[in-house]
Design brief:
heterodimer, A: alpha+beta, Immunoglobulin-like, TATA-Binding Protein, 55% helix, globular, B: Beta-Lactamase, two-stranded antiparallel sheet, 6 helices, 45% helix, AP_complex_ssu (chain B), Clathrin_sm-chain_CS (chain B)
Chain lengths: 962, 154
């Protein structure tokens, strides 16, 4: 037992603790504890009133027993009694017990709160601090209710001691975090900000945590803190290492406070005031310079404290993302750390570079370190460092280095730690897909993934390779050949069998010409794996077999033989048995034609977010995937999914899948996480799937007709539409999807679909910054007379997070009559301190409601003549603004929504189109004729519609398109 | 902010636990188990940082005792490492050449010192002198060894 020379050691407690330590077994310990509990209980129950010291000692023993991991069900009352003791040490033990073992017994809470209240008003700073610590430690709602109004007063009162102020600030912070609704902003808030100027460094240190939290929630109210923080920081950074006395830590002036100040500044955009900004940039430069100076001490604490500030400064530089010079310097500094002998610094440099990689200014600079990072992946002894290296490789990957990075990650996978394999697999799969220029490379990569780390290849990964192979016909033959070769390996992973079964079942015919992979060879190869596979895979293989019967009639007899054998047709597994029976029957009774229809090749999959990316995001939590990455994906994803505008048609897909038995089922369960082979749910989940790309807002938007128009805060009027709004509008006349708007903060993507007089539009808001937007609201309105022409309703969901909003806003439009103006979309949010107020025109134009009309040349000219009144015609002759290429023109005219009629106009250079615009009340027939003159680079556009206003509007809209 | 601080021995025995956010006893036990297994299985000379769920775990070994601090994801690892160091220095200053036994036998003091240093998962005071002044104020009732020995032993 160590001698306790200080304080008020409790001898009985020390004896008890050493008894416990001497216990040889768990049983002996429990026995000793029970004996002690009995003793304490009898003392507490005894008639003799206990003196304060004994009470303190027993309460402390109970606490010790509790901390050992045993339950305590008494002693609370005695602890509460200690709170009202005049002896500091007794009070202290009472508070400690309450803090550790708080019990929400309301009777007790009332007593505790009473004791706290007494101590808070005692004017004894030591007692006040104890009470404040207790509130902060417990932080319950009841305490917030009792003290949330009292503590701000203590915090800003002129006569409060510094130490009490410090405790009060952090206590208030704790209450604000548990019950923000109970902490009322008020007169004290402005005074809190000025604590940043306090003479006492300890007060500033404590207060800044509170100020940072409050600023995050109410940036506007606290924005004066920016200039105060900058000047405080500047004073610290420029001070000599001894100026701050005890707040200097191993020759580094106030490292904790510096970090906190830099962190506070990250709640705001760069200061607008030039002088403040200049001062801040100077600070950041000084911090970067100091990193190059020789250390003032060899102690690790010195370099840790110094580098802590440096990393925080780099975070701020990355947050601002506006000073290319500082960004590049930061990157160089981190580059030095990549090779530092301190493991911690290498780790942090890798981590910090990850964020730097997503800034356009520093992406290239980060890429120069690729060899070092690859080397780290190969040679670092510590798995957590290797993991950061893998993260960084992922973040710095782009088209130029994708092949190298993917190859390195694949080779690392062979020896990678089990704990990170799954994530590595997802990353490789995503990169391979995102940067695939050549799809045979993509297929090779994924098959390699399955070969190397088959166990870690989740369903999403192999689903995805199949989706892509199905959607890209240029890779199907290669995929079939490669998977056929991969299956030759004596031991191949079950996931390989799944991919193989699926791909050969669909595209085996593409390699059947080669006698080495003749239909029967393919079948035998697949079937040789059958018995080693799990039920879902077998089910998939059975479906592949029936597809074989369709692809290769010569295999029919062999396959029917297999299906007919007892192990299939009488399989104890219901799913397998059912498939065997049904397929056998189908193959014997259906004619070749029917078979060919039922077993037709899978239709292409609708474009959607990569399910793998979704999984990685889920795995790492929101915000883990950087914004640029998502944008890239948005931009580049289209290629993979087979080039754009093939609008998903749920009905057609569903029916085609319903009639196609099961291989489809295996892919359809993706979102619903149905087990592979869950055929009965397939159609439903497909429908869900098609809609789920557009987010859950879709169905609700459809039923919600009157919308949430009042969702914007009434105090600020929507800004007038942007000057370029009309230009943006014109971009969408001939297309339905794309990026509507983009600035430094925000990107808005749009996706729309129209049917008759109804339209539905999804808006995707992408936050390009690394901070959350506060109070994000969107409103859709129809100005002026448009109100009577178009119903627009919106279904808004808040999108304050980073990256893409999970639920896009859905807007629904219903045309009542023809219209020429566009509905307005107003967006308001707070970024940093500033209110962003932005109004755009939604690209809802009259042509969106076109139904194409096919007609013969004769009909066309007959109608043309019927619409001969002068006001029904609108004509415009204009210069070509874009390419006059035939294909481009055709695509635009089709995008317009009308039918493009061939062989109608006697001059084959000309284009004619016909369509009907559907509004609620009436239909407006429209005929269009576009006559290009290649030599003069001019067009003549003529429109004839049954309604004159439509002719004029269409003519205006279209003249901008060509 | 900091989420919790755990002190445990090389054998995985918990010596001090401080939870800055409300947590059930079950969760506490689960986390403690996770932390001890995770940290104790680390190779020597590894880095001091780990990712765990959405938190960063900063740990450091001092003689036989591991200090393990969990911080929010956006917090600074190096400064957190120095939070641990500063706490050790405070214990050292109070106990004089602190060892694991001091913390076992005077666990309540270890908690008091921590409360003077950190509140609600944030730093209250970084100055060693200031923290010690507060602690010493609480030891106003100094006892002599004689007084101590005269107290009942149970």
């Amino acid at each position: 037992m160590p001698a306790v020379s200080k304080g008020d050691g409790m001898r009985g407690l020390a004896v008890f603790i050493s008894d416990i330590r001497n216990c040889k077994s768990k049983e002996a310990e429990i026995k000793r504890i029970n004996k002690e509990l009995a003793n304490i209980r009898s003392k507490f129950k005894g008639d003799k009133a206990l003196d304060g010291y004994s009470k303190k000692k027993y309460v402390c023993k109970l606490l010790f027993i509790f901390l050992l991991g045993h339950d305590i069900d008494f002693g609370h009352m005695e602890a509460v009694n200690l709170l009202s003791s005049n002896k500091y040490t007794e009070k202290q033990i009472g508070y400690l017990f309450i803090s550790v073992l708080v019990n929400s017994n309301s009777e007790l809470i009332r007593l505790i709160n009473n004791a706290i209240k007494n101590d808070l008003s005692s004017r004894n700073p030591t007692f006040m601090c104890l009470a404040l610590h207790c509130i902060a430690n417990v932080g319950s709602r009841e305490m917030a209710e009792a003290f949330a109004s009292e503590i701000p007063r203590i915090l800003v009162a002129g006569d409060t001691m510094d130490s009490v102020k410090q405790s009060a600030a952090l206590c208030l912070l704790r209450l604000y975090k548990t019950s923000p609704d109970l902490v009322m902003m008020g007169e004290w808030t402005s005074r809190v900000v000025h604590l940043l100027n306090d003479q006492h460094m300890g007060v500033v240190t404590a207060a800044i945590s509170l100020i940072t939290c409050l600023s995050q929630k109410n940036p506007d109210e606290f924005k004066t803190c920016v200039s105060l923080a900058v000047s405080r920081l500047s004073r610290i950074v420029s001070s000599a290492s001894t100026d701050l006395q005890d707040y200097t830590y191993y020759f580094v002036p106030a490292p904790w406070l510096s970090c906190k100040l830099l962190r506070l500044l990250q709640c705001y955009p760069p200061p607008e005031d030039g002088a403040v900004k200049g001062r801040l940039v100077e600070c950041l430069e000084t911090i970067l310079n100091k990193a190059q100076e020789p250390p003032k001490s060899k102690k690790v604490q010195h370099s840790n404290a110094k580098n802590a500030i440096l990393f925080e400064a780099i975070s701020l530089i990355i947050h601002y993302d506006s000073e290319p010079n500082l960004l590049v310097r930061a990157c160089n500094q981190l580059g030095q750390f990549l090779q530092h002998r301190e493991t911690n610094l290498r780790y942090l440099a890798l981590e910090s570079m990850c964020t730097l990689a997503s800034s356009e200014f520093s992406h290239e600079a980060v890429k120069t370190h690729i060899e070092t990072v690859i080397n780290a992946l190969k040679t670092e002894r510590d798995v957590s460092v290797r993991q950061r290296a893998a993260d960084l490789l992922y973040a710095m990957c782009d088209r130029s280095n994708a092949k190298q990075i993917v190859a390195e990650m694949l080779s690392y996978l062979e020896t990678a730690d089990y704990s990170i394999r799954e994530e590595m697999v997802l990353k490789v799969a995503i990169l391979a897909e995102k940067y695939a220029v050549d799809y045979s490379w993509y297929v090779d990569t994924i098959l390699n993934l399955i070969r190397i780390a088959g166990d870690y290849v989740s369903e999403e990964v192999w689903y995805r390779v199949i989706q892509i192979v199905i959607n890209r016909d240029d890779v199907q033959g290669y995929a079939a050949k490669t998977v056929f070769e991969a299956l030759q390996a004596p031991a191949c992973h079950e996931n390989m069998v799944k991919v193989g079964g699926y791909i050969l079942g669909e595209f085996g015919n593409l390699i059947a010409g080669d006698p080495r992979s003749s239909p029967l060879v393919q079948f035998n190869l697949l079937h040789s794996k059958f018995h080693l596979c799990s039920v879902p895979t077998r089910a998939l293989l059975l479906s592949a077999y029936i597809k074989f019967i369709n692809l290769f009639p010569e295999t029919k007899a062999t396959i029917q033989e297999v299906l007919r054998c007892d192990s299939q047709i009488r399989n104890s597994d219901v799913e397998l048995q059912q498939r065997a029976v049904e397929y056998l029957k189908l193959s014997s009774i259906a004619s070749t034609d029917v078979l060919a229809t039922v077993l037709e090749e899978m239709p292409p999959f609708p474009e959607r977010e990569s399910s793998i990316l979704a999984k990685l995001k889920k795995k790492k939590g929101p915000g883990a995937v950087s914004v640029t990455e998502l944008e890239d994906n948005k931009r580049e994803g289209g290629e993979l999914n087979g080039e754009g505008d093939r609008g998903p048609d749920p009905a057609a897909m569903a029916s085609s899948n319903a009639s196609t038995p099961s291989p489809s089922a295996d892919l359809l369960g993706i979102r619903s996480a149905a087990p592979v082979g869950a055929a009965p749910t397939s159609v439903g989940s497909l429908l869900v799937d098609v809609f789920s790309e557009a987010g859950p807002a879709a169905p609700s938007a459809a039923v919600n007709d009157d919308g949430f128009l009042s969702s914007a805060s009434p105090s600020e009027d929507p800004a007038p539409p942007l000057s370029e709004a009309d230009e943006l509008l014109n971009k969408f006349v001939c297309k339905n999807n794309g990026v509507l708007f983009e600035n430094q903060l925000l990107q808005i993507g749009i996706k729309s679909e129209y049917r008759q007089n109804l339209g539905r539009m999804y808006l995707f808001y992408g936050n390009k910054t690394s901070v959350q937007f506060a109070s994000f609201t969107t409103t859709v309105s129809c100005p002026g007379e448009l109100q009577s022409q178009l119903n627009a309703s919106d279904q808004t969901s808040g999108t304050t997070g980073r990256g893409w909003s999970p639920d896009p806003t859905g807007t629904q439009h219903r045309v009542l009559t023809d219209f020429s103006d566009a509905p307005l979309l107003n967006i308001k949010f707070r970024y940093g301190g500033a209110l962003q107020n932005l109004t755009l025109k939604l690209p809802v134009t009259i042509n969106k409601f076109f139904q194409p009309t096919e007609m013969t040349s004769h009909d066309f000219f007959q109608r043309w003549k019927q619409l001969s009144q002068p006001q029904q015609e609108a004509q415009k002759i204009f210069k070509a603004n874009h390419s006059m290429d035939t294909e481009v023109l055709k695509a635009k005219l089709l995008g317009l929504g009308t039918a493009l009629l061939d062989d109608v106009d006697p001059n084959s250079e000309n284009y004619v189109c016909a369509g009907v615009i559907q509004t609620k009340g009436q239909q407006v027939g429209c005929l269009l004729r576009l006559e290009p003159n290649g030599q003069a680079q001019m067009y003549r556009l003529t429109l004839r519609c049954s309604k004159d206003s439509v002719s004029r509007r269409l003519c205006e809209l279209l003249a901008e398109q060509f | 902010m900091m989420r919790f601080l755990l002190l445990f021995s090389r054998q995985g025995k918990l010596r001090l636990q401080k939870w800055f956010t409300p947590m059930t006893e079950r969760e506490k036990k689960k986390i403690t188990r996770d932390m001890t297994t995770m940290v104790l299985s680390r190779q020597p000379r590894s880095c001091n940082f780990l990712h765990w769920k959405d938190l960063k775990i900063i740990y450091k070994r001092y003689a036989s005792l591991y200090f393990c601090l969990a911080i929010d994801n956006q917090e600074n690892e190096l400064i957190a490492l120095e939070v641990i160091q500063r706490y050790v220095e405070l214990l050292d200053k109070y106990f004089g050449n602190v060892c694991e036994l001091d913390i076992i036998f005077n666990f309540e003091k270890a908690y008091f010192i921590l409360d003077e240093f950190l509140i609600g998962g944030e730093i209250q005071e970084t100055s060693k002198q200031m923290v010690n002044r507060s602690i010493e104020a609480s030891d106003m009732l100094q006892e002599t060894m004689e007084e101590y020995m005269s107290k009942p032993a149970f």
